[in-house]
Fold this sequence. Notes:
mainly alpha; three-stranded antiparallel β-sheet; 39% helix
Amino acid sequence: MTTPPFDNDPSAAPTETDIAIVSAQLGRPARGVVAIAARCVCGAPTVVATAPRLPDGTPFPTFYYLTHPAATAAISALEADHVMNGFNDALIEDEELRAAFALAHASYLADRESIDAVAEIEGVSAGGMPNRVKCLHALAAHSLAAGPGVNPIGDAALDRAEWSPKVCVCRDYDVPDASHFRRTAP
């Protein structure tokens, strides 16, 4: 089994504190989290890797899931500004971008299948890959988890977002053992 390029130690399971913070970020219990795929500079979770099959048996194609409230809000603002239309136009017009986006799709599938292959979602990634831009949240999550240069649309969305993974804007999470996940910058 290959290991997805997680920002932290990929062999380490998420801690109870990680799961509590993700649940607080989402406003609901976290489901099927197999790893924290990217973290804020303060160490708080930003992206989770979710099992391709949830504990209740439901197939779940969105392997990389953006959880950080400020990141989610910034990406939602881009979607509200209809930047996806421009990204979709660029995919139609730019052959190199289309090829890079297809590679991002393959990378996403490989990362997810390194955890589990689920027949019902075989070949289905997230965010509209490989042919269109449907969800910038999924594409930005992939970019944060895999690193720059893997998902060109996710990278472009992060470049345009009014949020940076290099600046902590986390709130204080009111969960046990989260005292070390505190705001480190305004």
